[in-house]
Amino acid sequence: MTDNATDKGAADTRGRRHRRWRVSAALGLTAVLAGGGIAALRTTGSPASDASEPTAVVASHSGRLTSEESREASRIAIDAASRPGTAKDRQKAAKQGDGERNAAGGSGAEPLDTRRPLRAKSASSATDSRAEVQLYDYASDTLITRVIDLRSKKVLDTARQHGVQPPPTLAEAREAVKVILADRRLGPGMRESYASQTGKRLTSPAQLRLQSMSFLGSRAEGVDGARKVPRCGEHRCVQLFVRIPGGKWIDTSRIVIDLSARRAAVIGL
Hints:
By secondary structure, the chain is an alpha+beta fold. Helix content is 24%, strand content 22%. It is built from five helices and twelve strands. It has helices at residues 11-27, 67-79, 87-96, 170-182, 187-198; strands at 33-34, 37-38, 43-44, 110-115, 130-137, 142-149, 154-161, 209-214, 237-243, 249-250, 255-258, 263-266. Strands 3, 8, 9, 10, 11 and 12 form a six-stranded antiparallel β-sheet that branches. Strands 4-5-6-7 form a four-stranded antiparallel β-sheet, covered by helices on one side. Helix 4 (170-182) packs across helix 5. The two termini are 26 Å apart. 34% of the residues are buried. Mean pLDDT is 77; it is low at 1-40 and 42-62.
């Protein structure tokens, strides 16, 4: 992830802070537990600059889709489960009962990424009308890849994988914030940290600058609280790195948000 702005101060000081932040974020050293519960999410010094919105780039592919092509490909891919002619998708939705669901629980899988599929040099130029769309179905915890023909508006192929967790999107990061805010232990701490820095109420994830990463339960092996996140990897789980715009970081490095189950857990060393 790249940063768009630099913090004030001398370069050497900034470098030391940046290194300390990366160690702290990776190891989750800052405590958020107090007296067996959550006291308040600690606001830390600003160790790095604002970052660009997280993306869900999974692999390197040749060619780029325009913004309009990406939107259209995502629309077709999301609608595919209910569109006539996609019997395989309809059968899958029928087995699930409610069909595919996004991170917020709404109808249709969550879009993660759109790109041009790789093609052989000898392939026809007709393949240039194809787009590959990755989605995550929260109803079945399945990563879905659909190949779309933008000319015919049809789905050419669908593949499904379990236990594969690409990086979260900004939309998913914001859903993770909502889960924290709804938690009776963690929500008050995040709101308090924000209010102490801004003098304002935190009412929406859009008020925060977010970085995020997917979290696998295997990472918590041997860690206190690992029993709380055993399904992460099968479930869609994320960790957040939260910054108040123009201000400090709110330490959430030890919080794991299970978006599939809509709950948060605190783990420690």
